[in-house]
Amino acid sequence: MEQTPAKPDLLIVDDDPLISDTLNFVLSRDFNVFVAESRAQVKSLLRQIDTPPQLALIDLGLPPTPHRPDEGFKLIGELIATSPTIKILVLSGQNDETNARHARTLGAIEFIAKPCEPEIIKRLLLESLQIRSAEISAKPDEGGLIGSSMLIEKLRQQISQYANAPFPVLIEGESGSGKELIANALHRQSSRASRPFLALNCAAISPNLVEPTLFGYSKGAFTGATTSRAGYFEDAKDGSLFLDEIGELPLELQAKLLRVLENGEYQRVGETQSRMSNARVIAATNRDMRQEIRNGRFRADLYHRLSVFTIAVPALRDLFEDKEILLDHFRDFYARQAGVQAFDLDKAARSIWLDYGFPGNVRELRNIVIRLTTKCAGQSVNSEQLQAELDMESMTVELPGLAAGQDFKTVLEAARKHLQLQKNFNLDLTLQQWEKGYVEAALAITQGNLSQAAKLLGIHRTTLYSRMQNYNTSGDAPDSTQ
Hints:
This protein has 482 residues and is α/β, with parallel strands linked by helices. It is built from 20 helices and 14 strands. The N and C termini lie far apart (89 Å).
């Protein structure tokens, strides 16, 4: 007898019970639905289920700030940290273009404005299930990396150099930049390639579950421990253990991880017997770990033990020509997958693509390609169509000061990019922001001394004070000592 395929799991997050109950009723025929009304409820729910849902449909305005999108934006990041392959669709009444673009930058597949017919929502959810992550087609000996820039070549060389070493590797880079891809490449190119590769996201698991998950536990060690169970270190055996978002590891567990790294010893929770692990640890973080150490949130000795080798994954904005190579790779992949003709970018749109900074890195680039493949198959995409998919408001362009001897063409090029990328540009506001930045920097350098700050800026003290009054910048009022 032929078995009915299991329904995909869908997480609905909305604080309006009328909406969530209606969607639950309609969509439960096609999906296994979980419902929550806040980020806190989502965290609790994810701890209770074995695997994260394949799909999420979330509102942006959630408690405790239902009239602002902040909680929804945070939830998108947390869901992707829990499961990088989850497909997130935003269903929200806060549907201005700024929110829509930013949600997509963070990793949402699509933005659906309320109100929307449940049947349309169901169709979009089912379509998103068809989107697979693009398989990297680069040769295995290249680390599965796409690109020809010097930074990508450096990554390939580092992976090749560090792959077979038994020591830990710390991978640093922004969210969405491909840190897990690097960890996989290190494992695949090592002599451990035929052994297990296990990954644990330290940000996606309750702090009180990290220790039993890593080290295992004995029967009766805590409430709910009805049997003994091995942890990741034991299951990884002689393979590789990837600890993503290592900066989220609770302080009390950092000493235990340090012990494993130093001599391979660990204990299951509830046992006194020491066990040995030969797993190679690869860690990753998007935090400034030196700052975390200074703030007392991370042990310096553990950091130095983890960073025997360090790999810095570049942000996509620094890869320049690779943006085009990645565009071609993902565009061809998703066009083949959808069975449609690939879109193209016209000259103006291609220029914007190369100038855009992709704050969401490769993850954002991939999602933009997915949307353009769906909306513009076989078309030549113009600059207006492309800009509708980009989060221009989050972009900042560095406009260099016109220092003595500086090439004016450098300033001209930066200004061109700024005007091209920034919608609703306002020259007066931009100049005021730059002036305020220089004034506050001078005040910080001189510890609030107006006379010294004015000298540093090359203006009179009364002129400085007058300009400070205009935008209410912080600083001491001028007095006889200044």
